[in-house]
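User: Predict the structure for this protein chain, please.
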Amino acid sequence: MFPNNLLQFGFFPAWINQLDQLAEMAIPEPWTFSSGFVLQGRFQHMTILACYISSTYYGLNLERDCLGDDPRANELIRVEGEYAFFNTGLLTRHYQQIYAVFQKNKRVGALQPWYFKGWHDESASYMRKISELSLRPFATALPEISAFRPGWDVRMDMAHVLGEGDNLMRVPEPYRAANNLATHIEVAKASALKRAMICPSLVVPQYYGGKIQYLLPLSFDDPERADLVMALQSMDGYYLCSTCLTPEMAYCNARLLGRPTAPWLVALVQ
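Assistant: Here is the predicted structure, written as structure tokens:
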């Protein structure tokens, strides 16, 4: 079994430089938020890209653990001899797949079992030593994406959404202290579901915890701006919202399945 944290799995010399190299190698896209928003910890530089590659590894490892001894597990994070690698899901400017390649960490007392050797496309010398390439991330999950059903009931765990600490802090500051915050959210939810009926592209899928969920943006004032985002899980004929996200968190989650094109997400990186 591998650690769930990418930076515990492999030692990355000069992490920031590695992110810069990956961004330069991949098809150009925005990897920072125009607002300057950053995630805490090691995700402050190119926060979207850092979150993307770390969450991609986490998701692949989660699937790998679920498969156990099934041979398909090695198709996700492949180990061959002294090498390990996974498909990042990103493409080079020549549309070749980019892989994160590692070699066994031979340093005595090393905390990470693997040492990062670099980002390589499928034709690189390191990849020529590999008999089979790993699958594109979440390839098994993509067929599960079905059309969002705006007519379904949406049930909210309001106690959790408005709970103390991090959850409540996701609500924009002007509304956070409102006595009728729950009412604001319910009104915004009803409006968002009506908009989704006439504009299905408003709702964006995300991959979380090994499952497909849906992101529904809530607007308290300006319908063109997302103030809070509901994460909806499909249940038996209805959707359950156990938590809400900031728009930036939603962007990072949605990016795992593909570059976001919904206007309310694109606006965050323009």
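The longest helix spans residues 47-67.
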